[in-house]
Specification:
The complex is a heterotrimer of chains A (379), B (312) and C (257).
Chain A (H helix, E strand, L loop, with lengths): L2 H41 L14 E6 L7 H9 L3 E6 L2 H8 L9 E5 H9 L34 E6 L1 E6 L11 H4 L9 E3 L3 H11 L9 H15 L2 E4 L4 H6 L5 E5 L10 E4 L6 E9 L6 H11 L2 H11 L6 H10 L1 H6 L7 H5 L2 E2 L7 H13 L2
Parallel strand pairs in A: 1-2, 1-3, 6-7, 6-8, 10-11
Antiparallel strand pairs in A: 3-10, 4-10, 5-8, 5-9
Helix pairs in contact in A: 6-7, 6-14, 7-14, 10-11
Chain B lengths: L1 H7 L13 H37 L3 E3 L5 E5 L2 H6 L2 H33 L3 H12 L6 H12 L4 H8 L13 H26 L2 H9 L4 H12 L1 H17 L2 H7 L6 H10 L4 H36 L1
Antiparallel strand pairs in B: 1-2
Helix pairs in contact in B: 4-8, 4-11, 6-8, 6-12, 8-11, 8-12, 9-10, 11-14, 13-14
Chain C lengths: L3 H26 L15 H7 L2 H34 L4 H12 L2 H14 L6 H26 L3 H8 L4 H30 L2 H6 L7 H10 L4 H31 L1
Helix pairs in contact in C: 1-11, 2-11, 3-6, 3-8, 3-10, 4-6, 6-8, 7-8
The chains are: A alpha/beta (379), B mainly alpha (312), C mainly alpha (257).
């Protein structure tokens, strides 16, 4: 590159760069101050229970296939505000998008409990207004005592369940009983096993098989777990959070780490087992973003979901348990066949509470990030 | 052209500026014009390209924030992590994968481009459009088509078992070979086009001369055609190598998350791990590798460019 | 020339390689069954599904908005830049600078913009994707227009200037008409690149406003559904038409040269 020529243009370039930086700084400054101004007022509980919902609109973000397809139409028909559905494929994607800018445009986000906890720590969530959600009374009492958010102060559980092994009875020689069956499968199942990739669930089988807590932040324990996971990687078909059920259904995989609701037990050849070492109790929750301009509609929406008829309809459509006693009773009464065909749906809160609740670990959660990067990076 | 006459009209010269000191006005006008033409584009690129890149690169010396972003405490940790064998392996592995893909694209693309260049004019256009056409469908869908083809119950296995070559479906998906196939499929047209352009320009008389002088076709190819088409080879290799190195979608969809490339690592630092400083450091490493490559290319094209000049 | 047969083996191999997956996509899009692997009779059912898919529709609308917006901006800025670089500057640094977005890996540009948007606290949306697409769109338009400029005869412009026309008049009356085919080609290129662009949009779009490639990405992530085959077939048909029309138009403009 010709140096003589650049020097001739340097002053102009410098001026332009300075201008750009000044512009950038102005933009930044302006936005931060307005955010600071907004913070205290948003903390004050000033929701109008009689707000005209028809003037609001709601944007939710949720996993694909995790709510009944016609939910937006149903809500709009009932309350008169339009509902827009954005899709995220993992909790991590949802977090990245919800934290990327000052206002993600999302009103209600569906994320797992520990992620709701992390969002709340960042001050991104609106404290819930229970008086606007009378249907909270329909929940199982256990559902308000989950350790990531005791008392449901900023989140309402939408579904709950546990993680286990989902497998093809016709492809495994013996039924899996332990996490070791997936971490170190028999020779004939090599290349027919999948595990999850989202960090906490990636670590879960290893931690549980070693007898450690899934909320551990002990470096030595995590190092042991890493060794196990690296060994397990050699016999995996893939890491999969979204399509393990499909892989099992098609016979591409014989045994997968799965959330109970996405284990396609409607296929009679597929069963779900909770390993003897125990597992987790997870909850996927609904949270209202502090940046939302439609908070009344957001609360109305959450309340609507908790209606027994709606929540049981959700469960029936997505085949996950909902922490709603009235809804589960209704489902048991109206659709006994469905429960018979899908054993995981029959688990009671007492069954679920045997699992260890996943909580956000604050600063220590970076250790899990590191762990999952290391496992996925190893060749 | 009518415009020519418009301008040539004497009246056009008597603008408002032409009254006093036309020369000074001309110089001023030229400076203003330069600002008007270059200002918007250059300004835009400075704000939305240079400043963001500078910002990104500055992040390499800071600590990560717990929820993404950075904490403004300097650290050398990001760079020491970069040479951690774990990440170094991924980085070198990605360069290897990109290089294999580039080589495969060259081996397949060169004869193809050569053959196209020798087709009759009409067929030439059709053959060229046919190379580019798949490129105009969605990139992700093209990648995904290979999932249908290669998965356990997919068509390739079906066909192989059908003709009795294999009994059990092969494990064709989720390995490095699949990733290379996907990359090759996505970027092969980028190799064929510059190669075609370079070969097409060659003077057929040169080949004839070589043949007349008694050189065998292979000799003619190695000592005449190939060196002369070298600029096209270099461009094609760059066009394929660069996007391969930054790719994260193909390893994810066709690699099953088991083998990852540096693109996945970078993506994950921003969208999963929320470790922006380390992601920025990885990006810096990619940029550095590409700069080295660009210099190599510039050097190589100067070497071969000399030969090309003689031709003209 | 001696053994053309041997040469045509890789030639045909290339086309078989390029088109097998596409043929499979198109055939399977008419599958009556749910399986993406076995053909169970012809049907248009997946096209019906696709037509009723609000997410895909929204993605398509967003993509068209982004492509249109970024093409207009890219074309204006890129054309000015090309003329400026060719006529009012001889800086090779500037040349390299103008090409930088075209050679930078899209992932690097994407994260740089993500970091920048976060630093200035900008709310993401379609505008953030448009702004991002202009960065590379402008570079491609500038490159195409410059090629045209370097072939163009400068004597007319010089004559115009010598006769005292202002740079603006010279530009609008002489330069622009000569450049028109190049500008159109550049705009088309910017439009095409924007429509198919995934990585940058993935990082800079708001979660609530995905473009079509982002929608396709999550569809693919959630497994193999025949609906994607139908979408692929439609996209193919559209690009096929565009290619043919563009081909015709090029022939038309060429005859005007």
């Amino acid at each position: 590159m010709s140096r003589t020529r650049c020097t001739r243009r340097l002053p102009a370039a410098a001026v332009a760069a300075g201008l750009a930086l000044a512009l950038a700084a102005c933009g930044g400054g302006g936005a931060t101050t307005s955010a600071d101004d907004a913070a205290p007022s948003a903390a004050a509980d000033q929701l109008n229970p009689n707000a005209d919902l028809r003037k609001q609109s709601l944007t939710i973000t949720i996993w694909d296939g995790y709510s009944p397809k016609d939910l937006p139409q149903q809500v709009e028909k009932k309350f008169g505000f339009p509902v827009k559905v954005a899709i995220h494929d993992t909790n991590e994607m949802a977090m990245a998008k919800l934290t990327a800018g000052p206002d993600s445009g999302v009103d209600v986000a569906f994320v797992s409990g520990q992620y709701a906890q992390a969002l709340n720590e960042q001050g991104l969530l609106e404290p819930l207004h229970p008086e606007l959600i009378p249907n909270l009374a329909n929940l199982f009492p256990e559902a308000s005592q989950l350790s990531y958010d005791k008392g449901n102060k900023f989140s309402v559980p939408y579904t709950w369940g546990t993680t286990g092994i989902c497998y093809r009875t016709d492809m495994v020689k013996s039924e899996p009983k332990s996490w070791n069956d997936i971490l170190n499968p028999p020779a004939d199942l090599k290349g027919k096993v999948t595990m999850m990739t989202t960090e906490r669930w990636l670590a879960l089988p290893a931690l549980k098989s070693l007898g450690y807590s899934i909320n551990t932040s002990d470096d030595k324990q995590l190092a042991e777990a890493k060794d196990l996971l690296l060994k397990a990687k050699t016999s995996l078909l893939a890491y999969d959070d979204t399509t393990f059920g499909e892989k099992l259904d098609k016979g591409e995989a014989a045994m997968v780490e799965a959330w109970d609701g996405w284990c396609p037990t409607t296929n009679p050849k597929i069963k779900f087992a909770i390993p003897q070492e125990g597992s987790d109790l997870w909850a996927d929750t609904m949270v209202v973003m502090k940046s939302s301009k439609n908070k009344e509609a957001a609360h109305e929406f959450i309340n609507y979901i908790l209606d027994p008829a709606i929540h049981s309809w959700v469960s029936e459509n997505i085949l996950y348990k909902v922490p709603n006693k009235a809804a589960m009773d209704m489902l048991a009464k109206n659709k006994p066949d469905l429960l018979e065909a899908n054993a995981p749906l029959k688990m009671t809160p007492a069954d679920l509470l045997k699992g260890e609740s996943i909580i956000d670990l604050g600063e220590a959660s970076t250790k899990y990030t590191r762990l999952s990067t290391e496992v996925s990076a190893s060749q | 052209m009518t415009t020519e006459h418009d301008i040539a009209r004497p009246g056009a010269a008597t603008g408002p500026l032409s009254g006093r000191s036309p020369r000074r006005a001309r110089v001023l006008g030229r400076a203003a014009a330069r600002l008007a033409f270059l200002g918007p584009g250059v300004g835009y690129l400075i704000v939305l390209l240079i400043v963001p890149l500078a910002l990104l690169l500055s992040y390499t010396i800071f600590r990560r924030g717990r929820f993404g972003g950075v904490v403004y405490e300097t650290t050398g940790e990001n760079f020491s992590r970069l040479v951690d064998p774990l990440y170094l392996d991924v980085f070198l592995g990605s360069i290897q994968t990109a290089a294999i893909t580039t080589l495969a694209a060259l081996l397949l693309g060169y004869p193809t481009a050569y053959a196209i260049a020798r087709l009759p004019r009409r067929w030439k256009t059709i053959a060229l459009v046919a190379v580019v056409l798949p490129f105009w469908t969605n990139f992700l869908i093209r990648v995904y088509a290979w999932v249908i083809l290669l998965s356990g119950p997919g068509l390739v296995n079906e066909a192989l078992t059908g003709i009795g070559l294999i009994d059990e479906p092969l494990e064709l998906l989720y390995n490095q070979g699949t990733i290379v196939t996907g990359l090759l499929y996505s970027y092969l047209p980028l190799m064929v086009l510059p190669l075609y352009a370079a070969i097409e320009r060659l003077d057929p008389q040169l080949r004839e001369a070589s043949a007349n002088l008694g050189a065998r076709p292979a000799r003619t190819f190695w000592s005449v055609t190939l060196p002369l088409s070298m600029p096209g080879v270099l461009t094609g290799c760059m066009f394929v190598f660069v996007p391969c190195l930054g790719n994260f979608v193909i390893p994810e969809i066709l690699g099953g998350g088991r083998s990852i490339m540096v693109g996945n690592l970078i993506r994950d630092q921003f969208l999963k791990a929320r470790d922006w400083p380390f992601g920025a450091t990885l990006a810096l490493a990619v940029i550095a590798a590409l700069v080295v490559l660009l210099f190599l290319q510039a050097w190589a094209s100067r070497v071969y460019g000399g030969t090309g000049e003689r031709r003209a | 020339m001696r053994r053309p047969g041997l040469l045509y083996v890789p030639f045909w191999a290339t086309y078989v390689f390029l088109y097998t997956p596409i043929v499979v996509l198109v055939v399977m899009s008419f599958n009556a069954g749910d399986s993406p692997y076995t053909f169970e009779g012809a049907s248009l059912k997946w096209y019906g599904e696709l037509a009723g898919d609000a997410t895909v529709r929204q993605g398509l609308v967003n993509t068209l908005i982004v492509a249109a917006g970024s093409t207009v901006l890219s074309t204006v800025l890129g054309t000015l830049l090309a003329v400026g670089m060719a006529r009012y500057s001889r800086s090779r640094l500037l040349d390299a600078f103008g090409l930088l977005p075209a050679v930078l890996p899209d992932l690097v540009l994407a994260i740089a913009l993500l970091v920048f948007y976060a630093a200035v606290q900008m709310t993401l949306g379609l505008h953030s994707v448009i702004m991002a697409h202009v960065v590379f769109g402008m570079a491609f338009v500038a490159a195409v227009v410059r090629t045209r400029l370097s072939h163009a005869d400068t004597s007319l412009e010089e004559a115009s200037r010598d006769l005292g026309a202002t740079p603006l008049a010279t530009f609008t009356r002489i330069t622009l008409p000569t450049l028109a085919p190049g500008i159109v080609a550049g705009a088309l290129l910017a439009f095409t690149l924007s429509i198919d662009e995934f990585v940058i949009a993935f990082f800079t779009a708001a979660p609530t406003e995905p473009t079509l490639p982002i929608v396709i990405y999550s569809m693919v992530r959630f497994g193999v559904t025949p609906e994607i085959n139908a979408l692929a077939t439609i996209l193919l048909a559209v690009s096929f038409t565009v290619v043919i029309v563009a081909q015709r138009m090029t022939r038309l403009t060429e005859s005007f040269r």
